[in-house]
Write a structure and sequence with these properties.
The chain has one domain: 50s Ribosomal Protein L17, Chain: A (Alpha-Beta Complex). 52% of the residues lie in helices and 17% in strands. The protein has helices spanning 14-31, 38-55, 60-69, 73-87; strands spanning 33-37, 95-102, 109-115. The chain has a three-stranded antiparallel β-sheet with strand order 1-3-2.
C-alpha cells in the first residue's frame, strides 16, 4: 500500500525524476505553457507552484534557491521579470492543467500546463 506517499513516481527513480521536473519547470518558465502527459503535468504543477511561491519572497536566499533548481538562467530571469509581477499578489493557484485528450501513438492522456493570468 502507498499510504503517506505524496508524489507520483513517473516510472523513474529519484534522481531522474528530479531531473525531469527541473526540465519541465525550466521549459514552463521559458514558454509559460507546456504540453506533456497528464501525470507529468500534475507533478510539474506542484513543483512550479512551489517555485513561484518561493520567488514571491524576493530575498537573496530564495532567489538563489530558485536559480539553483532551474537549468537555465534565462528561465529564472523570466520568472522574476514577467511572471512574478503578474501573479505576485495571488496566494496560490498560479497554474492550471487542461486535459487535451489521448496521444495518437500510445494513447497516453495528454494535458497542457499553463499560467493563470
Amino acid at each position: 500500500m502507498r499510504h503517506m506517499k505524496d508524489h507520483r513516481r513517473l516510472g523513474r527513480s529519484s534522481s531522474p525524476r528530479r531531473a525531469l521536473l527541473r526540465s519541465l519547470a525550466t521549459s514552463f518558465f521559458l514558454k509559460s505553457k507546456i504540453e506533456t502527459t497528464q501525470q507529468k503535468a500534475l507533478e510539474a504543477q506542484r513543483t512550479v507552484e512551489r517555485l513561484i511561491a518561493k520567488a514571491t519572497h524576493k530575498d537573496l536566499a530564495t532567489q538563489r534557491l530558485v536559480y539553483a533548481f532551474l537549468l537555465d538562467k534565462e528561465a529564472g530571469q523570466r520568472l522574476y521579470a514577467t511572471i512574478i509581477p503578474k501573479v505576485g499578489d495571488r496566494r496560490g493557484g498560479y497554474t492550471r492543467v487542461v486535459k487535451t485528450g489521448k496521444r495518437r501513438g500510445d494513447g497516453a492522456a495528454m494535458a497542457i500546463l499553463e499560467l493563470v493570468e
